[in-house]
Amino acid sequence: MIQRSNLLQVFCLGLSVVTYAQTIDASALPAVDTVLQHDFPTQPTALASLTESLFQEYTRTGNTAALVFYSYGMLQQAQYFVSVNDVIHASEYAKTGFFYLDEAVEGNEDEPRIRYLRARMDAYLPAELGRCVITLADTELLLKAQWDRDLTAHINAMRYRALQHCRKDEQARQFLAQLKTMEPTGNDSPAWDGEEVTNIILPLVKGH
User: Is the pLDDT of residue 169 over 70?
Assistant: First the structure.
């Protein structure tokens, strides 16, 4: 079972996606569009309803962005259960969220954007959850692909944190020394920036 203290750290990271004004086909993916335009709701019933709609949307369309957002929604619900001290349900929902996030990657091995979204979340989780091993594998593959400077910097930051969390301290120091320009990040997940929304999230929403 995931410990309550670990869950509290997980859900202080801000798992939701930033609001973005660029138009998508809302008629095809209304639940995904709701997340992009308005974020996940904080009211538990509304959150549960939207999360279920995301899964139904994935089932109906096969759009992987809907599955990724469903996993985020499950993690947001786990956050709610943490807030009411229901650690059993919090652990169950968190495990489900991680399961479907992994499913999204494993079912789309040739789509690096989905792998990026998993690394983006996992890199900023508490080390005790053990997701650093996954992040190291993801970032190794991601760094072999072509990205712009800003996205490459994000991937490098994820990899550096994963090396730290996996207690590969010497490798982390060497990696940071090689990069030279990268500043060590804090414990909180940075806000999604325009490059990530434009080049990672929206192409997945649009199915390309």
Answer: yes
